[in-house]
Design brief:
Elements: H1 11-22, H2 27-34, H3 38-45, H4 53-63, H5 67-73, H6 77-85, H7 89-102, H8 107-121
Helix pairs in contact: 2-3
């Protein structure tokens, strides 16, 4: 069963629609830009495959779709959470508590927390990823 975005539209359908209607690119052309076989892109668009981390980032760049939307569409937030959670013992202990507490925040509240975290770590001018 294809992975669906929160809007209910499968992420593969979003990719196919954006590639064909917005970017006006054929399957082979986009596959070439992504450095994958056309059959691989077909499988992504039909929901038969999920991308690797590297490919997910290339899709973000080539399609202009936010990384967070792609991660949600392919249920891939776990990789970045794993990366952060395993950086040290304190983070491994605190991250689950933080995520459970922050689960129901509004987008505005998330933006405020991110802004505060950037200030605390000296990353104020950096864009989100």
């Amino acid at each position: 069963m294809p992975k669906k975005r929160p809007s209910g539209v499968p992420i593969g359908d979003v990719l196919r629609q954006r590639r064909a209607e917005v970017l006006k690119k054929g399957l082979r052309e986009m596959a070439r830009e992504l450095n994958i076989a056309p059959a691989h892109l077909t499988d992504l668009e039909l929901g038969r495959r999920s991308p690797s981390e590297d490919l997910l980032l290339r899709i973000t760049r080539c399609y202009g779709i936010p990384e967070a939307d792609l991660r949600a569409g392919w249920s891939k937030p776990e990789s970045i959470v794993k990366e952060v959670a395993t950086q040290d013992a304190m983070t491994a202990a605190k991250l689950p508590e933080f995520l459970r507490t922050a689960r129901n925040l509004t987008p505005d509240q998330w933006n405020k927390i991110i802004k505060q975290a950037r200030r605390m770590t000296g990353q104020e001018g950096e864009a989100g990823s």
